[in-house]
Amino acid sequence: MKALVTGGAGFVGTNLIQRLLKDGHKVVSVDNYSTGFKENHQKGCTYYNYDISSPNTIGPYIDHGTYPVWRDTEYDVMFHLASLARIQPSIEYPAKTIFNNFNSTVNILELAKKNNTQVIYAGSSSYHVGLYGSPYAWSKFGGEELCRLYSSVYESNTTICRFYNVYGPYQILDGDYAAVIGIFERQLQNNEKLTVTGTGEQRRDFTHVDDIVEALVKMVGQEFRADIFELGRGKNHSMNEIANMYGGEIQYIPARPGEYDKTLCDYTTAKRVLNWQPKLNLKDYIKKWLNEHKN
Q1: C-alpha distances in angstroms, 258 versus 79, 162, 290?
Q2: CATH number for the domain harbouring residue 212
């Protein structure tokens, strides 16, 4: 099998590429390295540095043969993971987030239509907490709607996967696009207080990246028409609980715009259709991390 992974130098993309290579598949990555890192490159994968949100790079109006990554378009599946993926940066830079996330998706779907290729799209659990709560939430739902459009009009084989607070190896530890688990780990390594927003009682469903990758692999080769799969652990924890698991001193900071009370996944459809259910627990992960990072 030959797979294309957009955002292949990023967090989830790197873990997915590792799995695909381990299973003996040929893998190509395209990434603009806005949130991905060349240090994440995996031996055996071919990497291209392109911005797939630009109509000058990919799309229906140019000759795809101009660009090396598109010369061989005989992919069996395209995993579309690339996006600007955090709520707070999207509130500060709405146009950038919407342009990037929406246009990159329509361009991938257009290429897939031309070549009858399966597309597996990374959606977001933010769908359940208000589409108009942030530009990020809206932009990811916009990608879902594009999948529905292409499946309806062109019978494209598309799948929508809603991720719930993914954590694990290669997660971002610093900067605007770091998530809470990565932030806590960086703060602990730097002997800093763990920053918790608001009261810390907001609850999130956290999912290990290995469980996410397992679900993505199970989707390959199946026929879907914008079918939706919720991919989460099915349990949630408050920020206070997580900080206490790590054992660091807490510093409370003001709540931020766009934040919400809770996420909690119902993965019934994924279990029924894909025979998938998550296996890894956040508490076990944190315990292992602490053992590996003892001073």
Answers
A1: 28, 18, 31
A2: 3.40.50.720
